[in-house]
Amino acid sequence: MTTTAAKAELLRSLHVPGTPLIVTNVWDAVTARIVAGSPGVKALATASHAVSFAHGVDDGEGLSIEQALTTARLIAAAVEIPVSVDFEKGYAQDAAGVQSNVEALIEAGAAGLNIEDSIGQPKAPLFDIDTAVSRVAAARAAGDATGVPITINARVDTLAGGGEWNDAITRANAYLAAGADCIFVLGLGDEAKVARALADINGKVSVISNPTSVPVKKLAELGVSRVSFGPGTLGLTLAHLQAATTQLTALGEYPAELGFSY
Questions:
Q1: CA atoms within 13 A on the CB side of 163
Q2: Which of 36, 49, 93, 149 can pair with 59 through a Cys bridge, CB separation 3.0 to 4.6 Å?
Q3: Which residue ranges form the domains of the chain, and what is each CATH number?
Q4: Could you give the angle at which helices 165-177 and 129-146 cross, rounded to 10 degrees?
Q5: b/e map of 17-46 (b: 16 or more CB within 10 Å)?
Q6: What are the residue ranges of helices labelled H in the chain?
Q7: What local confidence, expressed as pLDDT, does residue 19 receive?
Q8: DSSP classification of residue 118
Q9: Which residues, at least 6 apart from 115, have a Cβ–Cβ distance to it below 8 Å?
Q10: Mean pLDDT of the chain
Q11: Which tens digit of pLDDT belongs to each residue from 125-142?
């Protein structure tokens, strides 16, 4: 078995501008195995929204820290490749709590994590910048304390929360200085904004995409380092399930996917 430290190093190395890491988000052991077994997949990432809904609770730390860690442990144990966990706000009130929880996350097998800077749902208000920076630094300190260089994908919610561009960039660069490996910017809805973010941020950039977003191939050409799909993959799965259910209930043909072997 590859150590968590080695997986963390591998995960970091997969964030390459222009050759982005594509992570199709998962939420349990079986989705992790299916995605990990797909050609070309090199790492996994969870989506807190999907994990939360699978537990019957709302996103935004509706999960308990115990539920979040148990899910991380199940997914990490189910596959051999690195797993990055959407760790929301760190499930803690202060930076010391974030460090403690990230140390527990590393013990659960996580090679990376997302940590966000908005306080609640929707994506506003945000932690003040000093507090947000301290929480990113706490995640990095957890990696240092455990000897696992966990890959930190620090999320900037400024634009999604209606904030100003300059504040988003200031936060992004401050998070990089505090130990983040990549900046996950919400609100980059068109090619011009993606290009501007890449020019203004002093490090690697991660984006979330859906059918209305900049095409994945173009994101790669622009120089993005990571692309994820958040709860969209749960929606994709449920849409197929609902369509098949409707077809079967109407005494229709068996959907071919009903014979899928996992």
A1: 24
A2: 49
A3: 4-232 (3.20.20.60)
A4: 30
A5: eeebbbbbbbbbbebbeebbeeeebebbbb
A6: 4-13, 29-36, 48-54, 65-78, 95-107, 129-146, 165-177, 191-200, 216-222, 232-249
A7: 98
A8: B
A9: 87, 88, 89, 90, 98, 135, 136, 139, 152, 153, 154, 155
A10: 97
A11: 999 999 999 999 999 999
Query: Left (φ > 0), alpha (ψ -120 to 50) or beta: where does 208 sit?
Result: beta
**What tokens were used for 164?**
């100003």
Q: Which residues make Cβ contacts (< 8 Å) with residue 117, sequence separation at least 6?
A: 126, 127, 132, 135, 154, 155, 156, 157, 158, 171, 175
Bridge partners (DSSP) listed for residue 226:
21, 206
What is the rounded CA–CA span in Å between residue 145 and residue 143?
Answer: 5
Q: How far is residue 159 from each of residues 75, 98, 169, measured CA to CA in Å?
A: 31, 24, 10
Query: How far is residue 244's CA from residue 252's CA, in Å, rounded to a whole number?
Result: 9
For 205, the token pair is 């950039």
Phi-psi region of 39 (alpha: psi -120 to 50; beta: other; left: phi over 0): beta
Question: Rounded mean pLDDT of 166-190?
Answer: 98
- Cα→Cα distances 57→29, 32, 53, 64, 130, Å: 19, 20, 5, 10, 30
Cα distance from N-terminal residue to C-terminal residue, the chain: 23
| Sheet with 226-228, side-by-side order of all strands | 21-23, 226-228, 204-208, 182-185, 151-156, 112-115, 83-86, 44-45
Q: How confident is the model at residue 1 (pLDDT cuts 50, 70, 90)?
A: very low
